[in-house]
Amino acid sequence: MAVYTDITELELGALLKEYDVGDLLSYKGIAEGSENSNYMLHTSKAAFILTLYERRVERSDLPFFLGLMEHLAQNGVNCPLPVHRRDGVVVSEIAERPAALITFLEGMWLRKPAPRHCREVGKAMAGMHLAGQGFELTRPNALTVGDWRPLWEKAKPRADEVEPGLMSEVEADLAALTEGWPQDLPTGIIHADLFPDNVFFLGDEVSGIIDFYFACNDLLAYDIATCLNAWCFEADGSYNLTKGTALLEGYQSVRPLEQAEIAALPLLARGSALRFMLTRLYDWLTIPDGALVNKRDPMEYVRRLRFHRQISSPSEYGIGIK
Amino acid sequence: MAVYTDITELELGALLKEYDVGDLLSYKGIAEGSENSNYMLHTSKAAFILTLYERRVERSDLPFFLGLMEHLAQNGVNCPLPVHRRDGVVVSEIAERPAALITFLEGMWLRKPAPRHCREVGKAMAGMHLAGQGFELTRPNALTVGDWRPLWEKAKPRADEVEPGLMSEVEADLAALTEGWPQDLPTGIIHADLFPDNVFFLGDEVSGIIDFYFACNDLLAYDIATCLNAWCFEADGSYNLTKGTALLEGYQSVRPLEQAEIAALPLLARGSALRFMLTRLYDWLTIPDGALVNKRDPMEYVRRLRFHRQISSPSEYGIGIK
C-alpha cells in the first residue's frame, strides 16, 4: 500500500499543461508500489499513471529507469511508456518530488499464479533480457553480493530476535555466497524485482511488466533465480517443481541458458533469497508497527534460503544439466 | 486512505460474471473513502467502482443507500448508479463482505474550494434535496442530537486529555443543543457527510456527489449546516463569509429556505460541529496510532463549535432573515 503524498487538482492541472495528454478528468491515489506514490489519471485522451518518487528512489537514477522503459517498449516489451513533455523532458516535479507520467497498462497481477503463468513469465523475462541489449545507459545493482554485508551488519545484532540462531545461520550463508559468487556468466539488464505484483496478465497472457525501479546491469540468470523465489514457492514454503520447470522452460524457449548459468542456479537462488531476506529483515527491525508500509515477514525468505542451501543439482529446480 | 481487504482476480472474475459489464481489464485499490474498501475497475465496456463494505456499514442499510443512489440518479442528480446483476440484485458478496458495483464518475474533489465552488455545491445540495422527495425508503439519522449523548459518554472521561476544560465545555453545548434542537423544520433525504472529498468537479461544475453511506431522513437545513462547517472555514479556523454567502445563495437559487430554517442555522451549525467533533474525538481516543485510518483532529471542530456558539444572527453566515 502506498500513496504517501497528496496532490491538489491545481498542482496536477498545472503539471499536465506541460504534456499533450488532453484534459484531466479524474485522479485517484492507488494502492500499488511500495516505494512511491502512484496516481491513476483519466484524461480526455487516455489513462495514465503518475508516479511521485519518494525518498528510496535516487533522482539521478531516473534517467536510467525511464530510459529503460522507453527502450524496452520500443523493442517489443509490454511495459509502461514514459510520456515526454512538450519540451521533451520526462522527469517532472510535483509536490516537491520528482515525478513521471507513464502510460497505463491494463491487466491484473496474479495473487495465485499457476504453472502456465510461470511459463509465460519465464518467456516474458527472457524477452526482456534480449530487448535490454543495446540500451546505452548502465546502472550497477545496488543490492548484489557486495552490498549484503553492510546491510547485514545493520540488522545482525537483532537478528536473533526474529529467530534464535538466525545470526550464525546467515553469517555462514554470507561467507559461502561471497566466496562462491559466479563472475563469468552472461550479463545484461535485469528487472531485479520481478515478483507477481509487477507482472500483469490478461487471461493467460502477460500484458505488461511494471516497476523497473530496481532494474540494473547484472547476471541475467540472477533475475531467473529471483523469479524462482518469487513465483515457484507455495504459501507453506514448499517448492513447486511443476512451476519451476514451467518457468525455466518458458525462459529457455526464448533464450536458451548456457551450461554455466544452469550450474550456478542453486547459488544464485540462495543469494537472491538472502538479498530479499536482508531487506525484509532490515525493514522488520526498523519500520515502526502500524506505519503505512507493508512489512513482509523475513522468515519467509529464511525458509527459501534453507531450501536452496540443500539443493545438490539444478535438476531439483526443474532444469537438466548436461 | 482505505483498501482494507485484498481481493484476487479469480474472486473478482467470478463476481463480474453475475453482471453484464464486459470483461475485466484491470482493478486497482484506491485510496478513497474512510470506511470501506474501494477498487477502480476497467472492463471492456466502462470504468466502475467496486465497494466492499467494512464493519462500520450495516448490511441492512445497503438497500437504502443503493436504492437512494439509483433514485437520485434517475431524478437528475449526478451520482454513481449501482449496477444490477443479471438476477436483478445490487448487493453482492466478495471476500466475505457485502459489495456493490457502481458506475465510475469522472471529476476531482477540490482540496481548496473557492467561493464559486461553494455556490455550486449549494445548488447541487438543494437539487439533491428536491430529487430525494419521493424516495420510498427511510432511514433515521444514527448520528443526530439524541445519539450524541451516548457517544459523548464514551469519550468524556478522557476529553480533557485533548484540551483541558473540554469536558465541561462540551457538556454545556450538549445541554443547550438537546434543549433547543428544532423540531418543525422541513425534512427529507440528506447526505449528512457532504464534505469536499464527496463532491467531484469538472472545471467549475459539480460532476458528481458520492459516498451516500451516512444519508438519512432528517432536517434539510442540517445538511446545509454541515456544508457550512465543511466548505466555508479556512485552514486557520476562520469563517469565510464570502464562501458562506455563495453556498447559501446557491442553495436558495434552487430551493428557497423558510424563515424558520434560516433562524435555526446557528443552532444547526453548532450541532453539526458537535457531531463531527464527537466522532473525531472518539476515533482520536480509541484508534491506535499508525493504524491505516486517517485520524482527524477533533480540535478543528471544537474551534467550529466555539465560532457557532457566539453567532447572534444568521446574517453572520451570509444569509439575511426578514
Question: Could you walk me through the main structural features you see in this protein, from its secondary elements to its overall organization?
Answer:
- Chains A, B: This is Homoserine kinase.
- Chains A, B: Belongs to the pseudomonas-type ThrB family.
- Chains A, B: It is an enzyme of class 2 (transferase).
- Chains A, B: Pfam families: APH.
- Chains A, B: Its EC number is 2.7.1.39.
- 2 copies of one chain form a homodimer.
- A 5-stranded antiparallel sheet of chain A has the order 1-2-3-5-4, with helices on one face.
- The model of chain A has no long low-confidence stretch (mean pLDDT 94).
- By secondary structure, chain A is α+β, with helices and mostly antiparallel strands.
- Helix content of chain A is 42%, strand content 15%.
- In chain A, a hairpin with a 2-residue loop joins strand 8 (199-202) and strand 9 (205-209).
- The longest helix of chain A is centred in the last third of the chain and has 28 residues, at 259-286.
- Chain A contains 10 helices and 10 strands.
- Chain A folds into 2 domains: 9-105, Phosphorylase Kinase, domain 1; 109-317, Aminoglycoside 3'-phosphotransferase, Chain: A, domain 2, CATH 3.90.1200.10.
- In chain A, helix 4 (145-155) runs parallel beside helix 9 and helix 6 (166-180) packs antiparallel against helix 9 (259-286).
- At the A-B interface, strand 1, strand 6 and strand 8 of A face helix 1, strand 1, strand 6 and strand 8 of B.
